Amino acid sequence: MTAGIDLGQPQAQSVRSDEDVVRVRQLVRAVAVASKLSLVDQTKVVTAASELARNTLVYGGGGSVEVTVVDNGRRNGVQIVFADSGPGIADLDLAMTDGYTSGGGLGLGLSGSRRLVDEFQIETSAETGTRITVTKWSR
Amino acid sequence: MERVPILKIGDILLVSIQLDMSDQTAVQLQEDLAERIVDTGCHGVIIDITALDIVDSFVGRMLSTIASISKVLDAETVVVGMRPAVAITLVELGLSLNGIRTALNVERGMELIAAAHADELDYQLDDDSDAETATP
């Protein structure tokens, strides 16, 4: 299923259902393996992707995920963008706190996934929704 | 939606998760297991996650919930076969897996359940004869 991925191109996956969250995990894993991340780093980035894709679905009302192989001249890595046009995050500092949840979750999705990746950027507003970009570099 | 099979081996229910579960499949497993514990009267549940290449907060919470549900239904839950990379990631994510017993493999998990069940029986017997446990 993951054979034949063209790593030169960003890989897109829409997130509309539970099954799509599974597809995001599989896509991120395939790209992480192809960019030669270590097993632990693959596991971390796939776990982060799973948390964030679920947020896109549950809190953002669905959206899309784009996975790209990136290269900073010294190392390559995996960059993932999660975008939704939901209501945005009202209090970002609070949302980034361990254990805080506005839904029924454990409150580890945002704070936990930030710890699992190397770079984490978040843009959010009530008008444009939420866009989270994460990057994991190979060691 | 796919379903995770539950096998009965003696007094133990064995669940070997072999697929990348959707959240719905995970919730279904929780319900199926509770029913099977009551139907069979088993005193142990072993959840084998050898094949899982990640455990995120949703699956982690499912494991904790299963452990709590089975405790209420008089069964002990042991999670076995966690991969090292999964353990490292779980800790960094901040998931503590409260109330979950773990063992490295199915065999050790079965020993743990047998021991826990034996302790419980001893304890019930001790209640009737605590006079014999005099200190020297």
From TrEMBL, chain A:
InterPro entries: HATPase_C_sf (IPR036890), HATPase_dom (IPR003594). Pfam families: HATPase_c. Transmembrane segments: none annotated. This is Anti-sigma regulatory factor. Residues 40-139 form the Histidine kinase/HSP90-like ATPase domain. The lineage of its organism: Bacteria, Bacillati, Actinomycetota, Actinomycetes, Micromonosporales.
TrEMBL record, chain B:
Pfam families: STAS. SUPFAM superfamilies: SpoIIaa-like. Residues 2-113 form the STAS domain. It comes from the Bacteria. CDD domains: STAS_RsbR_RsbS_like. This is STAS domain-containing protein. The lineage of its organism: Bacteria, Bacillati, Actinomycetota, Actinomycetes, Micromonosporales.
